[in-house]
């Protein structure tokens, strides 16, 4: 291990959270002969494995008061917000608090791959995997990592040329030196405010992705533009801004003109109709991915080849079936109003299945914006009542059905209600605008439940 690298990692480290990232981090630290303590509120198999590897294990909903005694650094999982008691206690003691991507960055060797970072409220995974496809088409050894795929700390020093790294606001908040070669913020809208405490704190965390000085910026998003200007004024006046837009681009920008994606040199890349999944928001994602790929030598040809070869991730505005002229679309990944609006605006005559945990975000602006497109709404989940209130105020003519159950069978009820009102030409769209953890393990399980309920309904 390089001495300079090793010096950034203290000897006595507490890893808070034994999920995928926490377990990978603890395993790496143990291999470096660090004294590792792992804390989690609940027992799990990962803890048993880490204990066999030499970690000290502490389990309990309420952490013991001496948990931070003899601890030099705290590595946290996303579930540990800044106001978590363990984190606030660490801050009082002056303990360095960081996360798994920051650990991976600190452990980079001189010959390690470059990082290209992607963040934003919505579309991160799509943009990251699009970027990976372009990099591969350009002949570069690439991996899509970070908030998706394998933990960064496990593979960041592998045989790669470039890493396409998705970074969440949580990860960026706890990153202090991480600085991708270029970083894209693809959009900004209220989300995770219960974790960050305010929109200002949420945006500030996102801007950490620009630490290297090269910013890929959505010129159509006022909040992103404002964030870039603020970063220039208060953090780095030399920030290099490379913009992308769904309008005809100026020189040095990436954009859309006459139905074609255009690069910063004014050259055509590919028709917008080649982009999958469909929708202008995914054209914007493709432009962001292309702008990032150009920073490491991609060309119009490799960008076009990569985008054409790209296959969408599941649960992201994907048509899963069509019965009797009714299209059924799974956008379970739409876990906030901003994401749901992007998919709702892709269709007319929508039977909307929505609801879940709103995470403190106001859904009224979304309902007001998409009301003309709604034929009916089927609501389920913890905050279904809040969605119903917004519909009563801003879309009073839209019929609403409420599923009161919060069991897994609720999705069967929702699909049955949607099937009863949908007619040829309609789109039944699962775009919950909310998190899924009130009823499911995650958005993927919710999307799978939607597809399974539809199959049962149509093949009974």
Automatic annotation (TrEMBL):
GO terms for molecular function: ATP binding; UDP-N-acetylmuramoylalanine-D-glutamate ligase activity. Residues 118-293 form the Mur ligase central domain. Residues 316-433 form the Mur ligase C-terminal domain. Pathway: Cell wall biogenesis; peptidoglycan biosynthesis. Its EC number is 6.3.2.9. GO terms for biological process: cell division; cell wall organization; peptidoglycan biosynthetic process; regulation of cell shape. It holds the Pfam family MurD-like_N. ATP binds at residues 120-126. InterPro entries: Mur-like_cat_sf (IPR036565), Mur_ligase_C (IPR004101), Mur_ligase_C_dom_sf (IPR036615), Mur_ligase_cen (IPR013221), MurD (IPR005762). SUPFAM superfamilies: MurCD N-terminal domain, MurD-like peptide ligases, catalytic domain, MurD-like peptide ligases, peptide-binding domain. It catalyses: UDP-N-acetyl-alpha-D-muramoyl-L-alanine + D-glutamate + ATP = UDP-N-acetyl-alpha-D-muramoyl-L-alanyl-D-glutamate + ADP + phosphate + H(+). The keyword tRNA-binding does not apply. It is found in: Cytoplasm. GO terms for cellular component: cytoplasm. It comes from the Bacteria. It is an enzyme of class 6 (ligase). Keywords: ATP-binding, Cell cycle, Cell division, Cell shape, Cell wall biogenesis/degradation, Cytoplasm, Ligase, Nucleotide-binding, Peptidoglycan synthesis. Gene3D superfamilies: Mur ligase, C-terminal domain, Mur-like, catalytic domain, NAD(P)-binding Rossmann-like Domain. Cell wall formation. Catalyzes the addition of glutamate to the nucleotide precursor UDP-N-acetylmuramoyl-L-alanine (UMA). HAMAP family: MurD. Belongs to the MurCDEF family. PANTHER family: UDP-N-ACETYLMURAMOYLALANINE--D-GLUTAMATE LIGASE. This is UDP-N-acetylmuramoylalanine--D-glutamate ligase. It comes from Natronoglycomyces albus.
